[in-house]
Amino acid sequence: MKNVYLDHAATSPIHPEVMQEMIPYLTEHFGNPSSIHQYGRRARKVLDDARQTVASSIGASRNDIIFTSGGTESDNMAILGAASALKEKGKHVITTQVEHHAVLHTFHELEKRGFDVTYLPVDQYGRISIEQLKNELREDTILVSIMYGNNETGTLQDIQTIGSVLDERDIFFHTDAVQAFGLIPIQVDELKIDLLSASGHKINSPKGTGFLYVRESVPFLPQGFGGEQERKRRAGTENVAGIAALNKAVTISQAERKDRYDQYVNYRNRMKQIWDEQGISYVQNGSAEFFLPHILNVSFTEVSTEVMLVNLDLAGIAASSGSACTAGSVEPSHVLTAMFGTDERTKSSVRFSFGLGNTIEDIEYAATETAKIVKRLTK
């Protein structure tokens, strides 16, 4: 049996070159970057080099980059750090119903702290209405957080228009770019993005690495306390080995971005072509026009998500529902529920996501086995 990993949106394998870059900082170069001796200076250079690499990848200033443990911490820091610094100006904040839980649960926390949160709905393709966003803006609106590309459906939001709308009204704009970074070209000045979250383990760096971009003009209060690392914005000794790895991963992802994009679009199209040839029933979830290339979310409407995932796993195929598994059952995704309500497709969705190590042969195998499973289960 062939094993095929198609869950790269959950986590990705470490690139071999990234691993090699990391090893010396786990062994011989172990210094604390806050130390002034040669061991510390060598570690400090790793941080400085990586900060410049990350900043250049999004058109930012190196001083605006904060290294974090990943997307969740970056989202938490961005939202809580900005909102707490701006609360005297206003307590109205806006997000969407389809954000990652790292964002949604942080906004729930803001509600507990007395903030007024607006959760924007989305259409059947997972996109917000720009007009509705404009209508929800108020004099006391201080922060809007809208994800770049959805982690379940791959749907892209109109970040450039959103950024322009908010910039005209002097409202700060945060975007969770965890899935988009490395595949979609991002220039924070052009897009009017004030805060941006990204994660290393989605771009073939180890888990526990990531960064937060905070524009210098954004009022920001740290959410952790201790030393003065990261320009007093994130206390704690930096993960030097992880940051060295992140530096390499960002460098590779930027160099290969266009080729990866085209490759993953080809994978998406090939999967759907095989399903069409096999004559199985499925419906694609998300936008067919505005999408992340590596995520393909489909509903096999006659087969439940849980049954489908178990059978895929037995066939050696790792995929995902993109939703939470609890008590032996798969709950309908909050993203798909926001898009479709109680429609049956929310209970039969599967997310295939592509990445490093996948080949066209893998995709053809997975698509063919998926078709066999659907046919067997719908006899």
Automatic annotation (TrEMBL):
Gene3D superfamilies assigned to the protein according to its UniProt record, in alphabetical order: 1.10.260.50, Aspartate Aminotransferase, domain 1 (3.90.1150.10), Type I PLP-dependent aspartate aminotransferase-like (Major domain) (3.40.640.10)
Name used for this protein in its record: cysteine desulfurase
Gene Ontology terms, MF aspect: ATP binding; cysteine desulfurase activity
Family to which this protein belongs: Belongs to the class-V pyridoxal-phosphate-dependent aminotransferase family. NifS/IscS subfamily.
InterPro entries documented for this protein: Aminotrans_V_dom (IPR000192), Aminotrans_V_PyrdxlP_BS (IPR020578), Cysteine_dSase (IPR016454), PyrdxlP-dep_Trfase (IPR015424), PyrdxlP-dep_Trfase_major (IPR015421), PyrdxlP-dep_Trfase_small (IPR015422)
Enzyme superclass (EC): transferase
Reactions it catalyzes: (sulfur carrier)-H + L-cysteine = (sulfur carrier)-SH + L-alanine
Keyword list, A-Z: ATP-binding, Iron, Iron-sulfur, Metal-binding, Nucleotide-binding, Pyridoxal phosphate, Transferase
Matching Pfam families: Aminotran_5
Origin: domain of life: Bacteria
Cofactor(s) of this protein: pyridoxal 5'-phosphate
SUPFAM superfamilies linked to this entry: PLP-dependent transferases
Species the sequence originates in: Fictibacillus barbaricus
E.C. designation(s): 2.8.1.7
Residue stretches making up the Aminotransferase class V domain: 4-365
